[in-house]
Design a protein that fits this description.
Number of strands: 13
Distance between the termini: 33 Å
Order of helices and strands: HEHEEEEEHEHEEHHHEEEEH
Shape: globular
Structural class: alpha+beta
Helix content: 25-40%
Radius of gyration: 20 Å
Number of helices: 8
Largest sheet: 13 strands, mixed
Length: about 300
């Protein structure tokens, strides 16, 4: 199984090493194109194999993701905010559609107990996904062992996978490293749209992916990773607007760490009478079937 944590923290460590190579004035371009590949490539190779578990060290943090994707006249726009805190750890994710305010899916995995919770917005309750807004279900067998699987970081992990894949395929994908001031450093990597689609940064239906031809596949999607002076990640973004194969594509993804998390960031559960209990895996699978049908309708 592929280790997503390796990708996002390999990039973070890479930029930390780039920053350490010398002091630069704000706005100074450290390297571009082939020079950038030579400048950071060796260090990238040194760190990429050592960071498979590094993401588990990022505790007690809050994150945000703003995700926008448009293909011709079809578009989606959502925001995801999340928090993880404690040891053992509790996690909460809040997903909001910017297209339909009633399209809400929140998840809460408390550190204690054997169940986790999902909160559904009015749209899903009205469509019969659940008789109540709150649903409980058994925690996955794997628990919280796989940090890049949970919704708070799933998309940025896929962004990181895409960026690393682009670098591995062509080291010239590293387009530039620049000092931004206050010791921050930004690295720009070009990711082909084909790689973006393959890694499911946005999960697209076949009705769209089947229309992605050779022109769109090679369209460049710049990814920008920004780090603090200590090497910690500030933000990770992808933004592009391009045309090809008779279609127009626009996308913008912005992920960032937003602060320190605490138990106050975890939701308060309602009375047990207001929670629909899914007792086993069969009930959970049926719930997700109804949820998928509601999302597709």
């Amino acid at each position: 199984m592929r280790k997503r944590p390796t990708a996002i923290f390999a990039l973070a460590a890479l930029l930390a090493l780039v920053s350490a190579c010398g002091q630069a004035k704000a706005g100074t371009a450290l390297a571009k194109g082939d020079d950038a590949a030579d400048y950071v490539g060796g260090k990238f190779e040194q760190v990429i194999g050592k960071l498979g578990d590094a993401i588990t060290d990022t505790r007690d943090v809050t994150n945000s993701l703003d995700a926008y994707f448009k293909f011709d006249d079809k578009w989606i726009h959502s925001t995801v905010t999340s928090a993880r805190t404690g040891s053992p750890e509790s996690r909460a994710v809040r997903h909001r559609s910017q297209k339909n305010p009633d399209e809400i899916i929140d998840t809460y995995t408390p550190a204690d107990g054997t169940v986790e919770y999902t909160y559904l917005g009015p749209m899903y309750v009205q469509k019969g996904v659940s008789p109540t807004a709150w649903v409980s279900m058994p925690k996955p067998d794997a628990g919280l062992v796989q940090p890049c699987v949970w919704g708070g970081v799933l998309t940025p992990c896929r962004m990181a996978d895409s960026t690393v894949d682009a670098y591995k395929a062509d080291k010239r994908a590293v387009r530039g490293a620049k000092s931004l001031g206050d010791g921050k450093t930004a690295l720009t990597v070009t990711v082909p749209f084909e790689v973006f689609v393959k890694n499911k940064v946005e999960i697209l239906p076949p009705s769209i992916t089947n229309q992605v031809g050779p022109e769109l596949k090679k369209a460049p999607v710049p990814a920008t990773i920004t780090l603090n002076p200590d090497g910690s990640l500030v933000s990770f973004g992808m933004e592009a607007k391009f045309s090809g194969d008779g279609h127009n594509v626009e996308l913008k993804y912005d992920f960032r760490f937003t602060g320190k998390a605490s138990l106050q960031d975890m939701p308060k559960l309602p009375d047990a009478s207001q929670i629909t209990v899914l007792p086993d895996r069969a009930a959970v699978n049926d719930f997700y079937r109804r949820l998928g049908e509601a999302q597709g309708s």
